[in-house]
Specification:
By secondary structure, this protein is mostly helical. The protein has 16 helices and four strands. It has a four-stranded antiparallel beta sheet, with helices on one face.
Length: 428
């Protein structure tokens, strides 16, 4: 909850009641689009509060969780308007960093010089309903699935198959999701369908490694944005929102796991051996994976090289650190790699004057435990409990390493910003 009581230099007590309702409606449109595009809760609350201040509000009460926006604008003369909106996810693949960045820029523009309400409505609608860049999304999905297939030990033929099934996933996300009651059901049905088709294709084609193809496509469904934002929300004090995001992420991950397990049972996919790709191949494929997700999330072209380099850096640090901590599993090397990647993303965001989340996801995507998650399911289907426990622990280690490393770096930057703010207030 953000409570702001500024005296705005842009205060305009001449707004009619209808104009105030229209203004607040546009702020809710902006907040909804930010939330669906991948923004953190704190960013949504802060953006709406700054926008309200720019348009003359003496007090802004903004409350945001993953499914609800609630905003009250208080103006001089005890005039208040309140609106609440239920957030409905209308597409499975809404994450759009281009929209997020453009809305962030629009909020800064309005903070400096507020636009007329009708112009604000036009600008927000242009961003909300503009070109969704579907070709970039599809190309990114194919590149990411094929890249991670090879990353986890697949052959070029496996990568081609993973890319083809990525096209099917894209089609389902764009056309079929709207008919599902929620993301859990969509992920479950999508995983069963895609996993069953991969398994069925691998039966006559004995050279096709179904496990590698499935892992590549699993990476497209893992809720990396939700997991990352859940950690950041809890760190900034939005505990309720963070817990809700985390629970949602775990449910979605569970749906993916159950779906592919059902597919393995249907098609009798044999239990595979985990064969890692050579380190140099992993590094190249980390670049491909980061590139794929940058395109999927419609990252602005100018920002893509930095984000892709972040994926290479993160996995390179992990490969360098892992031999020194073999007795401690992958938690410590994963933490170090995530911390370095998060530091890189935060610094790059300040250099590019863009939200850090734009770089954080592509940078950390090689650390997402798609491989361990698959092998955990595979051994569960085979009834090999010891191996299930081993891969469950490995999946949890990856998740904890990502959360801890990201939290450490974000906390340091947060404290630095608070110290700077305190220093400015003391000098003032």
């Amino acid at each position: 909850m953000n409570n702001i009581n500024p005296s705005s230099p842009h205060a305009d007590p001449g707004y009619s009641r209808q104009e105030l309702r229209s203004l607040l409606h546009q702020l809710l449109n902006m907040g909804e689009t930010l939330l669906l595009s991948g923004a953190e809760i704190n960013r949504v609350e802060d953006t709406l509060s700054r926008m309200g201040k720019a348009y003359g509000a003496a007090k802004m009460n903004v409350f945001v969780i993953t499914s609800i926006l609630m905003v009250t604008m208080g103006f001089p003369g005890d005039q208040e308007v309140t609106q609440t909106r239920r957030i409905s996810r209308s597409a499975a693949a809404e994450t759009n960093f281009n929209r997020l960045e453009r809305l962030n820029a629009l909020s800064r523009e309005c903070a400096a010089c507020p636009l007329p309400i009708h112009e604000l409505r036009r600008r927000i609608n242009d961003i909300r309903y503009g070109d969704p860049e579907v070709p970039r999304f599809v190309a990114g999905s194919v590149i990411a699935a094929a890249g991670f297939c090879v990353f986890f030990g697949g052959t070029p033929a496996d990568a081609a198959a993973a890319g083809i099934f990525a096209l099917l996933i894209c089609f389902l996300q764009r056309r079929f999701y709207r008919f599902c009651p929620n993301i859990f059901i969509f992920d479950l049905l999508c995983s069963i369908l895609v996993g069953s088709l991969i398994g069925a294709l691998a039966i006559p084609l004995d050279w096709l490694h179904a496990d590698k193809v499935m892992i590549g496509d699993i990476m497209l469904l893992i809720p990396g944005i939700a997991l990352t934002n859940a950690v950041r929300d809890m760190l900034v004090g939005d505990t309720l929102s963070g817990i809700m995001r985390l629970i949602e992420s775990l449910f979605w991950s569970g749906a993916i796991a159950i779906g592919f397990m059902v597919a393995m049972l249907i098609t009798r996919v044999p239990v595979p051996l985990e064969i890692a790709a050579a380190p140099r191949v992993q590094l190249v494929m980390a670049l491909a994976g980061a590139l794929g997700f940058s395109l999927m999330f419609r990252l602005r072209r100018k920002l893509i090289p930095g984000a892709v380099l972040g994926g290479f850096l993160t996995w390179g640090v992990f490969l360098l650190a892992r031999p020194h901590f073999t007795y401690m599993g992958i938690f410590i090397p994963g933490l170090i790699a995530t911390a370095v990647g998060s530091l890189y993303a935060e610094l790059l965001a300040r250099f590019q004057k863009a939200p850090a989340i734009l770089f954080l996801i592509p940078t950390l995507i090689p650390m997402m435990p798609g491989g361990p998650l698959y092998y955990m399911m595979s051994f569960a289907v085979a009834g090999m409990r010891s191996m299930v426990n081993a891969y469950t622990n490995l999946t949890v280690e990856y998740a904890l390493a990502i959360a801890t490393g990201m939290s450490l770096i974000w906390s340091v930057f947060f404290m630095i910003e608070q110290i700077r703010l305190y220093s400015r207030q003391s000098i003032g």
